[in-house]
Design brief:
Layout lengths: L1 E12 L5 E11 L9 E12 L3 E4 L8 E7 L7 E22 L4 E6 L2 E8 L1 H6 L6 E7 L8 E6 L2 E2 L5 E4 L4 E7 L8 E23 L19 E4 L2 E4 H8 L6 E3 L8 E4 L2 E4 H12 L2 E2 L29 E4 L2 E2 L3 E4 L7 E3 L2 E15 L2 E14 L8 E8 L2 E4 L4 E6 L15 E6 L7 E22 L4 E6 L2 E8 L8 E7 L4 E9 L10 E8 L2 E8 L7 E12 L2 E9 L2
Parallel strand pairs: 17-23, 22-26
Antiparallel strand pairs: 1-2, 2-5, 3-6, 4-5, 6-14, 7-8, 8-9, 9-13, 10-11, 10-14, 12-13, 15-19, 16-18, 20-23, 21-27, 24-25, 25-26, 26-30, 27-31, 28-29, 28-31, 29-30, 31-38, 31-39, 32-33, 33-34, 34-37, 35-38, 36-37
Helix pairs in contact: 2-3
Amino acid sequence: MLIEAVAVGVNQRLGDEPRRWIDLSLRLRFEPRLLAETLGSCQATWRLESGGGELRVEAGDNRPGLSRLAIDDPAEDLARIVLGGTLALDLVEPLALAVPLRPGDRATIATAGGDLVVRLIDDAQAKAEGKQMSGVLLEYPAAALAREPQLALSIDGKPVSSRGGSSHSGGPRHERMLYLEDLIDVEHVVRVGTALPVAGLTFPLRLALDLAALPDGERRPGQAYDRASAVAWTGGERSLAEAIAQLAVAGNDVVLDVGVDERRRAHLPAFSGGFWDGALALCAAFEIGIVPSAPDEPAATPQHWQFRNGRNFRFNANAANTAAPIACGPLRLSGEGSPAPQVCGLVLVQPAASTLTTTRGLGGVSRTLTSAVRLRLEPRFARDLVAQAAVTWASHGRDQDGRIVALRPAAPPSEGWNAQGGDPLAVAVDGLDAASRRVRLDGLLQLELRRPVRHDFSLTPGGSRVLQIGDNVLTVELIASDPDDGRAGLRISGAPGALDDLTVSVRDEHGRAKTSTSHSTTSFDAQSEVQMWSYDHLADAAHRIQVAGREALADPCLPFTVEIDVP
């Protein structure tokens, strides 16, 4: 067994309620030869053997095999802690039975824990025994089975639909019944899927953590979605191709437009900074420009913001909010210069066009500036990565002399504004003074980044598979008969929102797609959700399962500033 420290955090809070504590997330991993279907219940008990403080177990985490612990009030100079404990593990043996029965018949299966009795009860027996209706009844000793049994029925290989089911526990024997309507007097095949207890094992646990080895430098994520990529080079003469090679780092693809000679040479000044600043320095040295997104290279599709799973963006109700078309993908450089864009971290702001409207009315003269701007992300942001994008404009801006102007979202005044680069982002500025020559506007670009993922694997009814989705875990189970209603199905449990736009596909042993009869979602708390896709019947054979969706990467909020000249 491997004990993995998934997360370690030494926390200190200062202020009115000072506090010091340590957070630990520990995952237990078994050797791969131990298959998931042979593992029953698993319970880890931890204790603090060395190091000051009080150990407690955090509740509310649904990830399998993960223990969340906290140590309250550790010593300030604590450099090492040692945890001990025990792991109680039940090993099981999967059991799949196919029992031929006619109405009124019964069969007995002997196990080490006692006899399992399978009966096909007709209407007369159901009435005599006080049952709701005819059906399949499984009776078994409480200690005989390690898992809730699943029942299914077929005639000549064709599944028989059930009318739900029930379970009764209490006393020395348990019952599981699958209700059937219009039971006919022919031979049926009753399928039982469950597991038998094999052994209960106890393992000692011990983990030593060297807190002094934790880094004391500032944390820098490996993939930063809220800061610019760093580029640097020394000054000197080089070709355009060589310069582009030094700019195109960290997944930022840069390509040349048709007709641009990559062999041309120029003196490139030394540089160290963000990607966009580096791109502008390169363009200035080689007298080339940035090509706006062409109409056949659409920007990220603008959509109204969706609020789901509690992971929404909370906009300022007094601010101007609008869905935002965002340019993504490779950066193209052309031989022609372009209007000077403005850099704001990993966002490039490109003013597109502006119009000034002066109105003389009963109340006097007023001026409104309508301007279009285009926002572009670094090339490392692929187009299918940006699921949603929205811009929140500050309610007010200022002109060159500090006078306050009012902002509001607007529509572009003419189709000509869309000639290059697709739809721009338009904003209107009211209350301009006659002396206003330049305005400064602030905004916030809010993104929802999602990465397409797909998992393909095989499962037999009664089996399960654990999928790692980023920091989240999904458990996929193929069920021959649900304990609550008797339906066969595919069940996925895990943290809500681990995968957006979740879809599943089930194919039988012959490669035929199974059609789901219903889909349900049950949420137990903010960290636990179960989705169920029901099917009429699932044969006791390997099925091909596909689980697809979009993994939640980050929801960055990127501030930007644009300065616009008044015509």
